[in-house]
Amino acid sequence: MAKIHEVRRGGVIIGYSVDLGVQPNGKRERRFHRTKEDAEKFSASYAADPTPIGVLLDRKIEILHCYNRLREVGSTFTEATEFFITHGARKGNPEIGLMIEQILKDKESS
Prior knowledge:
- It is a single chain.
- The chain is α+β, with helices and mostly antiparallel strands.
- It is built from five helices and three strands.
- It has helices at about 35-50, 55-60, 60-70, 75-85, 95-110, and strands at about 5-10, 10-20, 30-35.
- It has a three-stranded antiparallel sheet, covered by helices on one side.
- A hairpin with a 5-residue loop joins β2 and β3.
- The longest helix has 14 residues, at about 95-110.
- It is elongated and about 75 Å long.
- The termini are far apart.
- The model has no long low-confidence stretch (mean pLDDT about 80).
């Protein structure tokens, strides 16, 4: 279970913070709740399924955009992920359009 801390302002408890620990991006993630009961419920549900909800909410627009693009071609996130991994794609690989431009420039100069 995640740690729950009282949040005080002027010596008065205004809510409770659930500390979810350090995320893969190196930042500490916390969730604020007005009541201790809400914080405990969230902490228990997070322990059961530690989906990084903050990451999903922060990237909602990107997720929806990708979902719509995949839907246009009749594909899913799972299929796209498997294709990406199977073909050894890595972050930082050049885009196909840039690769084609570079090949054409090399052919012109030869």
